[in-house]
């Protein structure tokens, strides 16, 4: 009896649980018995044949080349291969003298006519596979256009069945949102963020703690802000986003910044916050023995270095200077509330609507440039994606204005926060101190070791109301409205509240 290998295959692991493999095996066994062939070893594979690279098939081909068997029996041609690379390998071993048999196809692989018929059937099998791939992609892209994500739910979401929207995981979803917030603060590298999320218990698909590549994939996935990737395009999703488009764009900015300058060895309080008054370059922090110094690295700059502890004392005095007086709180709160009701919300909406219309116009013009051949397709794709993100962010801001609570309590909390800036700054940890500086000062320069800080517009406007002889006639802009909706300012207010409940003396100095 001629020793041969038997090869049976299904495309997926799930199909392997059905009757197909047994049916193939029975057909091959019957063929071997009729033709006096001995099956010396079986190869049972659960892999698609549309592409080369099946592990068991490759191992079997290697052994056939080595002469470990005289022949090979497979059920049908489409079970052997649906790609021309593997078909060529079968031809190669055939020319070495290995007999190729197909149990369900009565053809002689060694004859000219039989080989021609086999090649035709192989072409049909390959075409079927390609067409099936196209139909699957068509279905997937159709789902994406409908706003439905057809793939496995990203970490932080749950699958709810085919054709349904992904739902936020009540356990992992909040942790993923925290992951974005922490990285967006600029205080974490991906490595340190991974360690922090492991400490907080964020787990991946296999219920194992997340690793660095998981965190990096999350930060790069626009699904979390309501966008879906597919075929090189972005689609608007109908699922509930975990973060805003603005937060996602902030993540991209932080990552780009870290590519330019990796995190330093020491955690510096004023890293990338201070500028030289002469050349406007960012000051670099360096630890020398027991102190940290900030200095300008421009070659011919004559500005002296500034010590971190001395700068922190100056920041404390700067916060004392920009915070509003306790006696003016009620006057300011009443004026802000009245302004919001009459003008503020409408002004902000009008401004955003104008920006939205302008962005749409620029996006339409971009399409015209592509049609006219003025720009290349890759450049068009990048710029269109940026416009898509910008439009989504503007729509989110408009929706937030319509939904945002601007009652008396919101205004009072903001005024209370602005009244206690210096005491809050002295009591809060480093990351929140940085957030306070970013949100309470427009620019921060250093002149020969002396701080020169410009207060934020919203603080200037609030103080001007308190100092005015006729507060109700003091003009205001949308800066105060933006401060009311600023998530970082709200989180700082929460710290202020916690500090107050812990016994912090919030009386003005």
From TrEMBL:
Pfam families: Recombinase (PF07508), Resolvase (PF00239), Zn_ribbon_recom (PF13408). The keyword Coiled coil applies. Residues 3-147 form the Resolvase/invertase-type recombinase catalytic domain. Signal peptide: none annotated. InterPro entries: DNA_bind_recomb_sf, DNA_bind_recombinase_dom, Recombinase_CS, Resolv_N, Resolvase-like_N_sf, SSR_resolvase, Zn_ribbon_recom_dom. GO terms for molecular function: DNA binding; DNA strand exchange activity. One of its GO terms (biological process) is DNA integration. Residues 384-411 form a coiled coil. The active site is at residue 11. It comes from the Bacteria. Keywords: Coiled coil, DNA integration, DNA recombination, DNA-binding. CDD domains: Ser_Recombinase. Residues 154-261 form the Recombinase domain. This is DNA invertase Pin-like site-specific DNA recombinase. It comes from Litoreibacter meonggei.
């Amino acid at each position: 009896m001629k020793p041969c290998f038997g090869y049976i295959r299904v495309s997926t692991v799930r199909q392997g649980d059905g009757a197909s493999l047994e049916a193939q095996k029975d057909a091959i066994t019957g063929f071997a018995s009729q033709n006096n062939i001995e099956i010396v070893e079986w190869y049972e594979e659960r892999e698609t044949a549309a592409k080369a690279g099946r592990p068991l098939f490759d191992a079997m081909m290697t052994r056939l080349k080595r002469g470990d068997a005289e022949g090979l029996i497979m059920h049908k041609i489409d079970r052997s291969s649906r790609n021309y690379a593997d078909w060529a390998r079968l031809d190669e071993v055939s020319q070495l003298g290995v007999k190729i048999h197909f149990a369900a196809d009565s053809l002689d692989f060694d004859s000219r006519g039989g080989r021609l018929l086999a090649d035709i059937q192989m072409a049909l099998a390959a075409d079927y596979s390609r067409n099936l791939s196209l139909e699957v992609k068509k279905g997937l892209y159709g789902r994406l256009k409908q706003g439905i994500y057809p793939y496995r739910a990203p970490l932080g979401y749950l699958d709810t069945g085919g054709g349904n929207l992904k739902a936020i995981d009540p356990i992992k979803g909040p942790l993923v949102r925290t992951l974005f917030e922490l990285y967006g603060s600029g205080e974490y590298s991906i490595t340190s963020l991974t360690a922090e999320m492991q400490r907080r218990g964020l787990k991946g698909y296999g219920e194992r703690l997340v690793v660095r590549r998981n965190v990096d994939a999350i930060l790069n996935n626009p699904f979390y802000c309501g966008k879906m990737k597919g075929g090189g395009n972005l689609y608007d999703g109908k699922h509930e986003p975990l973060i805003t488009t603005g937060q996602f764009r902030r993540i991209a900015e932080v990552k780009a910044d870290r590519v330019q300058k990796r995190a330093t060895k020491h955690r510096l309080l004023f890293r990338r916050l201070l500028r030289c008054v002469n050349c406007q370059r960012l000051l670099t922090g360096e630890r020398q023995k027991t102190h940290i110094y900030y200095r300008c690295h421009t070659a011919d700059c004559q500005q002296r270095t500034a010590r971190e502890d001395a700068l922190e004392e100056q920041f404390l005095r700067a916060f004392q200077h920009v915070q509003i007086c306790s006696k003016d709180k009620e006057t300011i709160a009443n004026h802000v509330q009245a302004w919001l009701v009459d003008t503020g919300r409408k002004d902000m909406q009008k401004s955003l609507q104008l920006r939205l219309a302008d962005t749409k116009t620029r996006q339409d013009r971009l399409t015209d440039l592509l049609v006219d051949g003025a720009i290349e397709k890759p450049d068009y794709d990048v710029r269109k994606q940026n416009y898509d993100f910008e439009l989504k962010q503007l729509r989110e801001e408009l929706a937030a204005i319509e939904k945002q609570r601007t009652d008396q309590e919101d205004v009072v909390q903001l005024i209370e926060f602005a009244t206690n800036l210096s005491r809050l700054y002295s009591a809060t940890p480093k990351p929140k101190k940085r957030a306070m500086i970013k949100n309470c000062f427009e620019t921060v320069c250093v002149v020969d070791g002396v701080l020169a800080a410009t207060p934020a517009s919203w603080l200037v406007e609030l103080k001007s109301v308190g100092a005015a002889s006729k507060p109700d006639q003091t003009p205001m802009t949308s800066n105060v409205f933006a401060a009311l909706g600023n998530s970082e300012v709200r989180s700082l207010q929460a710290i202020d509240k916690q500090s107050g409940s812990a016994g912090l003396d919030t009386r003005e100095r």
